[in-house]
Amino acid sequence: MTGKRPDAQAEGPAAPAPTESEPDNGARKTARSVRWSFGAVVARQGFQILSAVILARILGPQSYGVIASATVFISLVALVLDQGLSAALIQRPEVTRRLAGATVTLNLLIAGLLGAGTWFAAPLVSGFFRVSELEPILQVLAFAIPIKALAITPRAMLSRDLQLHRVGASDIAAAAAGSAAGIGAAFAGAGPWSMVYQVVVTDLVCGVALMIASKGPRPNFSFRSVVPLLKFSSSVFATDCLAYFSRNLDSILVGRFLGVAALSLYGMAYRILVMPVQLIGQTVNRVMFPAFARAAQEPALVAEKLVAATRILAISAIPLMVYVACAAPVLVNLVLGPEWMPAAALVSVLAIGGARETVFYITPSLMKGLGQGRLIIRYEILAAVVQVGGIVIGLQFGLLGVAVGYAAAGFVLTPVLLRIQKSLTGVTARSQLGSIFPGAHAAAWGAAGYGLLSLTDLGPAGMLFGGLGVFVVSAVAILWLFHRRMLKAYLRDAASLVGRHKPATSKPHGAMP
Hints:
Layout: H1 23-82, H2 85-91, H3 97-129, H4 134-142, H5 145-149, H6 152-160, H7 164-187, H8 194-214, H9 227-258, H10 260-294, H11 299-335, H12 344-359, H13 362-369, H14 373-395, H15 399-425, H16 429-453, H17 459-482, H18 484-497
Helix pairs in contact: 1-3, 1-7, 1-9, 1-10, 2-6, 2-9, 3-4, 3-6, 6-8, 7-8, 9-10, 9-14, 9-15, 10-11, 10-12, 10-13, 11-12, 11-16, 11-17, 11-18, 12-15, 14-15, 16-17, 17-18
């Protein structure tokens, strides 16, 4: 998501940097947080993808479209529940238990209002998507919204203290329980209602586990203590709303004008886009957001963190997603089945968009960590205009046009993101592109190797695994032959991030602190 950095305190205070006596303990804490965060994201995504694949194969595109349309609305509910308060809690230098308890109460009150609103809005949403089965599903889910609210503040409190191992354990348990409930319901013949079982069980397990891990905080009515959070949280909430509509308008328009069968195809392909964002981008960002906040008074340190994080994101995500783009027809046929083959072209396009989005997913965390609320709003307004324009233009050309429009809009915004990074940290666009290029170069040669192998007749399974082997060998060879210094820096940064390597006292520019 360069000279003098603008005042980071303009939109809200950043947490203090660690003292001289803290670095070793802080590094160990960060490393453990990264390992748990990555493990939790891998496990959670694994369970969710397994559940989605099984439901998709059982239900088919038409019935699965009901779940896809419900997901669009439930995502909006989750956004409104938070109100940006969790980001404000993480960014604020000091948070009392009383303040945290007041945010819990506020979350629960908002959840009650959203539950009532969802109940009455269900017929309208169902009519908008022209899916009669959607109305009772949303009305049942309305009663579960307060359960979702339970996890918001405990998650923020644990995250601000880098207690991500506790967050990770809760997420893993919740994903496993929810997936088991959804899959079990699907095999029992629940159809689209399988989603209800999955969502309710996931939210219940996650909320209870996080409340136990954070030991509360206990709800109270000290709403005055929440007032200092509102300036920053309102900025975050406004930008999140803009981001929601710009990033979900494609699904909304596809469901409305092309039908739920088309929405299910698009939604399944879109999962490919968000997979690296959640698997790689969120893992790094969960640590980098509080890290940026704590280093806000040291611009050089923030710049080093940004360059190192970009290098990790680029080399990790770009080759992975280019391989997915190449192998999309084989993957869709083997994993989802022949009736889902129209989604293959969408997967290829959105995989490329997902690679770009993963690399620049760090920018919103940078802006939030430095308290740049107004800048976030300005960027999200611009992003919404560009992305909506790309989606609306693409809609004229059908489902594939929507995917191309969405992905193209992201590339149009890339120079803006590079400019923002430069203004906040002093890191030039050339430096950032230099961090990104090795991953892109390796991915291009990996794709060439895959293309040559596709000229043979290996069959779907042989092409899937043989193509992966050729892609990996080609990509690694390019990194070793042409980008050895960057590859070593990537391995050093990744090892340092997960605590497998103790950084030297004097770090080169861009090394992960």
